[in-house]
Amino acid sequence: MDLADDEVLYDKKSKGKASKRKNNEESGPSKKRTKDRKTEDNSDDDDDFNLTQQADFDVQTREADIGIIERISMKNFMCHSRLDVRLGPHVNFVVGRNGSGKSAIVTALVVGLGGKASVTSRGTTIKSFIKNGKQTAELEIHLRNRGADAYKPTEYGNTIIVERKFTKDGGSGYKIKSKDGKIISSKREDLNCILDQFNIQVDNPVSILNQDTSRHFLNSKSPHDKYKFFLKATQLEQMKADYQTADQHREVTKEVIEKKEQMLPKLEKEVLDWEQKFKSLTAIDDLKKKIDRLKEDMAWAFVSEKEKGLQPLVREHDSEKARMPRFEQKVEEAKDNVNKYVNQQKSIQEQLKAASEDVLLLRPKYEELKEVLGQKKKFARNALDDFKRVENTLKKNQREKCALEARIKELQKSAQHDYESERRGREEKIEKLMEQIKGLQAQQHTTEHQNEQFRSAVTKYKADMYEINQEFQALKSNEARKSKTLQSLHAAKNDKYKRFGAYVPAVLKSIDEHCRKGAFHQRPRGPIGACFHLKDQKWALPVERCLGNLISSFCCNDHHDQKLLDSILDRHCGDRSRPSIITSKFKDKVYDTSRLRVQSDEFPAVIDVLDVEDPVIANCLIDQVIQVEVYKMVTFNTNECLIIPHATKLRRV
């Protein structure tokens, strides 16, 4: 076995030199070595290792008080089911074949004292050290804790036990116990404090040097790598990082101090303000003391005033005191009456108690008689039931007897008849029955035909009923819409825009916002019905019938404005019926219709009864009314107007 295959554990307090160990196969076992080991391994590997401590080393006789590793226990760790190693207080040599557990001891020491799995060069995660087929692993390390430098000796005693347990799912936990096995802590911070107290550095290669690190160090020829190893081994690298962190903290502290110094004048000013306020409060305290004195004087003045009014009360008290003997005599008489009534109450209670005892004595007999009465009632009910059953049976037998006697008489009479006439009677009866069967069959066919007709009629009635229900639901929905519209119209009675839809004010508000932002080329007009007035209200119904949905429409100058208005209507109208948009170039003057308009002295045209101020709306009405059939308006009376189509097509306005 090569030297690199062995692991050497050095105790930090031990002093002395050990000669270089030779190959076991060349030198053979040493006779001077004394075996001092205790192991228990349940794994399949039968190889063991030797723990040796030579007695002839030149070491100091005094042992270290703290930081000595006294014992390492492993359970389901790496390839060992259970391994227990006890170490001496000086240098310990662990010798054995491959797989005997040398590396397991070093790895357990690093992992058990909080080191990372990557430091051991045996695995990347801590769960990789759990034995195959097991779910958990446990490590237990005993550290000596004696002398003046001991860590909390009153809590832990002479030995600190560090136990670490980890599972397959990656969980891990610590238990730091005293010598008696009592759990003192389970925090990683407490373990770090113990290691700092004992100066144990599990990640320092000088303290624990595994095979891979030593092999890399021996094979490395680069001074840079060796210097890096030196920095890591002497903790200079960590010290440098600590200094940098401290320097950063110093800079931050310096900035904080500068900020505080800048705030100091302001705080001093606040102190002066508070001192002035305190002086004011002191004056207030003096006033409060003066008020307290005045309150005391007022209290004594009140007492004096009451004493003056006390004399009449004293005289009244003396008068009442003179009447006291008479009242005391009445009290004595009342006490005598009370004693009398108490004695009567006691006598009544004694009688009541005696009656209660009699009731208790008679209670068992009462229960017994009650049970006997119940049994007799039950017997009587059973007897009555039996009597009724026998009576019914007797009546039934009597009826059967009468029926049998009648049958016997009938048989006696029939035996005297002529059997030939009886046969003819049966044949006639059969013929009649056959005719009845035929009639019933014909009646059955008729009934089935009627049933089929009834089924068809029922199906038709169901279909008609379904259609009627559909029409009813449609009418009901229409009625609800009309009612909602009517409510909206009533609500919008004083709002000229809500008459054309509850959403119109919101649409107009959005149009105004877009106009302020300059989104429209020209402001849209609408609704059209809100942009003109009737010269005479009698034309309201004819104009509404003639214009139709045009009164709720909007006008846009171009397609850009139309698309923008479309998006506004989509946002506010939703599922409700939305107004139409008429796109036409806006003009500042009304069209000249003098040559093409309807000429009639008797009936006015639509445009004649409207008062339109906006040329855009007027031109839109002229354009749109030209697209519909021309109507004449005839006035029958002041309350009714009728729209009738002209007999011939006139010029459209």
Explained architecture:
Helix 11 crosses helix 13 (559-573). The chain is 54% helix and 12% strand. Among the domains are: 3-203, 3-Layer(aba) Sandwich (Rossmann fold); 522-645, no CATH class. Strand 11, helix 13 (559-573) and strand 12 (581-583) form a beta-alpha-beta unit. The strands form five sheets. A six-stranded antiparallel beta sheet has the order 4-3-6-7-8-9. A three-stranded antiparallel beta sheet has the order 1-5-2, with helices on one face. A two-stranded antiparallel ribbon has the order 10-13. With 653 residues, the chain is of the alpha+beta class. The chain is built from 14 helices and 15 strands. Mean pLDDT is 75; it is low at 1-57 and 627-653. The protein starts with 6 loop residues before the first strand and ends in an 8-residue tail after the last strand. It is found in: Chromosome; Nucleus.
